[in-house]
Design a protein that fits this description.
Layout lengths: L1 E4 L5 H11 L4 E4 L9 E3 L5 H5 L6 E4 L6 H8 L5 E4 L4 H16 L2 H9 L19 E5 L3 H12 L3 E5 L12 E3 L4 H5 L4 E4 L13 H6 L4 E5 L8 H10 L2 E6 L25 E3 L10 H17 L8 E2 L4 E2 L15 H8 L4 H9 L2 H9 L1
Helix pairs in contact: 1-10, 4-6, 11-13
């Protein structure tokens, strides 16, 4: 089996990945690539790469999530399967927790003051928030969300998680609900963790109305994708004090290599209740080894004729496992669960409900 990884340009990296994949797989890194290849490892493939090989059958995105432009190209080529990897889940969950602690304990502003010899915050109890007993809402209960929820439970927090398939349950004592219950869950959240993929359904899921539904003083942590939360309402909720604080590792504007650029159209950097991080939640000294390990696992599955894991549903932009019906569920085909699952991310659910299209959803789901 021939594999092309265009962005794997150094001979050292190619050699490292070859050690992981073992024999039976021909690996090509950099450009130009081979004339024919069965698997393309590329997060941002262009049309030329997708058409150059007549034997191409699979595309692996070598990171978490799938760029919208890649989804668009793959939707136009249904013969190709699309997969991604989840190699940096532990690092990303750890970043969410680090941001939560930094915001709730106001570590960054306290550090700045003490560097100037200022000790007054030591006697100001209002400068720190106790997490034990607080209500945490985790949007998304995949590998990252599950780790976040588990850690919050260990801190003594009361945790609710939202997932596409709530009937699969959660690790006790986490309670899990569908996105149909978003408004109700937001109204109780004192800490909101966002751990969802960015898809057409989740973009803008947390807008002005949803932010207003949060209790005053709620802490918001986003290690997923910035555009899940509307930019202007988020800034205004933080500036007004409605949100108690935010830890943000993902942004609305990114630089080109070597460029210095503000991460938003709004001056988040002027807000003392925000901790800013330059999208490094998936970083660690070990993360590249884990990336190669996860890619190699998929390649070995393909080479051995097995079904490759982490197949992306190109319509919804998420792992197909999150949309698959459980075969042993006697209640899976109730109108409520069907409707909640197909319209699982808030805006789509409410829009379909207003249009009275439940019968259409049922027809699509059972086809």
């Amino acid at each position: 089996m021939r594999v092309w990884y265009p962005r794997l340009s150094s001979a050292e990296e190619v050699a490292r990945l070859r050690e992981w994949v073992g024999e039976g797989i021909e690996l090509f890194g950099g450009e130009p690539g081979p004339s024919d290849y069965e698997v393309l490892v590329d997060g941002w493939p262009n049309a030329e790469r997708l058409e150059a090989s007549s034997v191409l059958r699979s595309v692996i995105v070598p990171f978490t999530g799938v760029p919208p432009e890649t989804l668009t190209l793959l939707r136009q080529r249904p013969r190709l399967s699309l997969h991604n990897i989840h190699h940096s889940g532990p690092e990303t969950a750890e970043m969410a927790l680090a941001l939560m602690f930094a915001v709730c304990k106001r570590i960054v502003p306290m550090d700045r003051l003490l560097r100037k010899g200022e000790w007054s915050p030591r006697w100001d109890d209002a400068q720190s928030l106790r997490l034990e007993g607080k209500r945490a809402l985790v949007l998304g209960y995949g590998g990252i969300g599950r780790r976040i929820a588990k850690a919050c439970v260990a801190l003594g927090m009361k945790v609710t998680a939202m997932r596409n398939r709530p009937e699969l349950g959660a690790d006790a004592p986490v309670s899990v609900v569908s996105f149909q219950n978003l408004a109700e869950a937001l109204a109780c959240a004192e800490v909101l963790h966002i751990a969802l993929p960015l898809t057409p359904r989740t973009e803008g899921m947390i807008g002005e109305r949803e932010l207003a539904a949060l209790p005053k003083g709620t802490i918001l942590i986003n290690v997923a994708r910035a555009k899940i939360v509307d930019e202007r309402p988020l800034f205004e909720a933080l500036a007004s004090g409605h949100l108690g604080g935010a830890g943000l590792d993902v942004w609305y504007r990114y630089p080109k290599p070597g460029e210095r650029v503000s991460p938003s159209d709004y001056p988040f950097e002027t807000l003392d209740n925000v901790v800013l991080s330059p999208h490094r939640g998936g970083s660690s000294t070990e993360v590249e080894s884990h990336r190669f390990e996860h890619i190699a696992k998929l390649l070995r599955q393909a080479e051995q004729g097995e079904a490759m894991e982490n197949r992306i549903d190109r319509k919804w932009g998420i792992d197909q496992a999150a949309l698959t019906w459980p075969t042993n569920s006697t209640s899976a085909f109730s109108a409520t669960s069907l409707y909640a699952r197909i319209g699982s991310e808030g805006r789509l659910f409410s829009a379909n409900r207003r249009r009275g299209s439940l019968s259409c959803v049922l027809q699509i789901s059972t086809a």
